[in-house]
TrEMBL record:
It comes from the Bacteria. Residues 37-169 form the Retropepsin-like aspartic endopeptidase domain. GO terms for biological process: proteolysis. The keyword Hydrolase applies. PANTHER family: ATP-DEPENDENT ZINC PROTEASE DOMAIN-CONTAINING PROTEIN-RELATED, ZN_PROTEASE DOMAIN-CONTAINING PROTEIN. It holds the Pfam family Zn_protease. Residues 171-182 have a biased composition (Basic and acidic residues). This is ATP-dependent zinc protease.
Length: 190
């Protein structure tokens, strides 16, 4: 019963805040887009891989994370790069990618152990937007979802309602977005 009261109170507060926000002319502008409401699991497209992944939405994670195999650092033109494989969720075939290394991070696990991960930028198709997003590369084979969406993709884009799932359609990986970050594709869609 207490949970129902809390849920009702939360929904009532949210509804009142939205009504106040909608009536305030100074709170919106023609160029500002409203955040989308997403559930705890949503489809996210990775443009470079040409496919979509079911992703767990995690507001506790600062940075997005994606399952990668055979992660290998190398140098190209004196700069740090990373070669890695993503696994196509439909065909289970490996997708070989090479991206510049953005940085390395140290992740602390619940057990207190630390793990070093490489970070790369990938174009994430989320909702109706495609935008460059940092992803840590890690082994997520023991998890149900190969991709974890962190706050870096959610910020200013989405509000999370954990009682919902799959509120978004699979995004068009070849759509042109407002930031002109869409790929110049000559290949087919997956």
């Amino acid at each position: 019963m207490k949970i129902l009261q809390l849920t009702y109170s939360t929904l009532l507060s949210l509804a009142m805040a939205l009504m106040v926000h909608a009536e305030s002319p100074s709170s919106t502008s023609a160029t500002q887009e409203e955040p989308i409401i997403v559930g705890e699991v949503e489809p996210v497209g990775i443009v470079e891989a040409g496919t979509h992944f079911e992703a767990r939405i995690d507001t506790g994670a600062e940075t997005c994370s994606i399952h990668a195999e055979n992660i290998e650092a190398f140098e190209r033109d004196g700069k740090k790069w990373v070669r890695f494989q993503l696994i196509n969720p439909t065909t289970k075939e490996p997708i070989l990618l090479e991206r510049p290394q953005v940085r390395r991070v140290k992740i602390k696990h619940q057990e207190g152990e630390f793990e070093r991960r490489m970070v790369v930028k990938l174009r994430a198709a989320f909702g109706e937007e495609i935008r460059p997003t940092e992803f840590t590369l890690t082994d997520r084979s023991l998890y149900q979802y190969p991709l974890l969406v962190g706050r870096n993709l959610l910020h200013g884009t989405a509000i999370v309602d954990v009682s919902r799932k799959n509120t978004l359609e699979k995004p068009d990986l070849w759509a042109t977005d407002t930031k002109d970050n869409a790929p110049k594709s000559s290949g087919g869609k997956n």
